Amino acid sequence: MKNLFRKIEALLVATVMILSMCTAAFASNAAMAASHATIKGITPENNITVTAYKIIDYNANGTYSPVLDGTIDMNADGSLNPTAANVAALATDRIGDLPTHFEIAGPEANGDYITSDLTPGTWMIIVTGSETTLYNPAIISAKMDTDGIIKYGTLDFAHDTWTDVNSVVYMKKSEPDIKKTAETVVAGNDIKGTQYGDIIKFTIEADIPSYETGKTGIQYSIKDTLDGLSFVNNNQYGITATVGGSGDSTLETAVIAAITTAINNEAKSFTVENLGDAWLLAHRGQKIVITYHAEVSSDAQINIDLNTNTAELKYSTNDKVQTKTSETKHYTFGIDTDVIGERVTGTPSKTGEFIKINQDGEIAYDETTGEVIKTTTGTEYLEGAEFQLHIGSAAGPLFTDARNKNTFTTDADGRLEINGLDSDVTYYLIETKAPAGYKLVSTPVEVKITAHFTGDTFTGYDVSIGGSVTHYDYNEAEGIVTLVNDEKHASNPYGFENTKLGELPSTGGMGTYLFTIIGVVVMVGAAGAFFISRRRESEE
Q: 15: which residues sit within 8 A by CB, 6+ positions away?
């Protein structure tokens, strides 16, 4: 029994020792958790520097005082109250006078900056070197408690805010962005494909950084550049500008003036700038929204015209001027037009989706070169045929291109070049004048271009004319177009056939003269017979 009690006693002692060790470990962890200051929310970048400047001292008698006299506000009870304005002034005007400062090493694996080198008091944290983000001066504390233990604070740039004297709240960390979007004013029209003359509505959303109170010399501008478009401003398609969701006369005046100047100068870009430090501080942390309209005006004589329209935001951070951009893309298409890019196997100078041929003609794509070839000896390419293109139906409005043409004529190779066409719009091609010596065929021919995208990446398109389909792949990065003609994607050019008129005798032969002479002889004979008959009747 005694042995049993001894064993139990030994077990209890061991348990107590283990619990004591755990308690010590927990205490150690707790002490570690409180043994350093933590700075969070700094975006990982190269060349970031985090520096701590002491702005409030802890005195031996247990009180606190500003490191530089008169730089920190005081509450009614005599306690110190470092405001956003105090810290901003120290950061801009007196930072060189602060005697105690050091760089905080980091970041840790989780992105935090930690330090145990903060002596009791209040420290101003300055972040520099960012390529994208504005970090306002912020503060963190190291408080001495009654037991003589320092309790460190935590600063989170990503979520912490300042409130200025006007009760305006702004972020201690600000990473402004810009976003440009586009939509056609015709409902249901996909912006990815556009037609010459389409009106596009653009919207630009740009953030104003949360600059610190008293910031001066702020650089902030919004620039927008068009490609294949012309600005439009009229009663139907106007300009709007808001900030923070409300109208603002200063902003509206600046935006309208910038776009009007671009229109007057026939320029392709406008810049909104010089809004002023006071205006930017009054609207810090808010969003500018600009809307305007532009007309598709591209005159590119190529089968795929990629137009990239770019909005650019420039803004000053702590010590640099940064740029961010946002772009939209839209495309116009052509038939029987110049090919952009080249394939390794070679590309014809023009595509050949539509070829004008005689009634005995037959054509196809060469499997190696992709060029249109005659597959019968009787095939002829017909020049001089004229066509018009109707939008939406055979009786729909006429399509007019960038050169103000609405009638298109086949060339010596029978091709009918038309540029500035939309995808996913059905057109109807109607012959209005036949080639010399051929009959007019006025039956409408349906034309439709279908573009293919993977996400926002344009990967290819199909051209359907009169039921004949041609397939193309497109490499946007390299600008290369490739004709696809295989078992799964058979491509066939559309051969528009015309029948010859009945042949008449040529000059120098008997021709119609023979028929004229016979007709005259018959008429003279008939007249003679008539008079002879009358004469006989009168004699009787």
A: none
Q: 289 and 277 in contact (C-beta within 8 Å)? A: no
| Three-state secondary-structure class, residue 279 | helix
pLDDT digits (tens, 9 = 90+) for 47-85: 899 999 999 999 988 889 999 999 999 998 888 999 998
CB 494 within 8 A of CB 353: yes
Please return the burial class of 105, using the count of CB atoms within 10 Å of its CB with bins 0-12, 13-18 and 19+. exposed
Give CA–CA dist 356/343, Å, rounded.
26
Instruction: Print the SS3 string covering 167-230.
Output: CCEEECEECCCEEEEEEECCCCCCCCECCCCCEEEEEEEEECCCCCCCCCCCCEEEEEECCCEE
Bridge partners (DSSP) listed for residue 495: 355
What is the pLDDT at residue 388?
98
- Strands of 457-465's sheet, edge to edge? 408-409, 386-391, 426-433, 445-454, 457-465, 468-475, 480-484
Q: Give residues with Cβ within 8 angstroms of 377, minimum separation 6.
A: none
Q: What residues have CB less than 8 Å from 130, skipping those under 6 apart?
A: 43, 45, 48, 317, 318, 320
Instruction: Name the residue among 371, 352, 457, 495 with its Cα closest to residue 415.
Output: 352
How many residues make up the chain in this entry? 540
Residues 327 and 306: beta-carbon distance below 8 Å: no
Name the residue with higher pLDDT: 129 or 525: 129
Q: Is the dihedral angle over the CA atoms 517, 518, 524, 528 positive or is it negative?
A: positive
pTM comes to 0.78
The neighbouring-strand residues paired with 183 are 201
Give CA–CA dist 268/78, Å, rounded.
60
Beta bridge pairs of residue 389 = 429
pLDDT, tens digit, 9 for 90 and up, residues 337-347? 998 865 544 55
Which tokens belong to 4? 């049993």
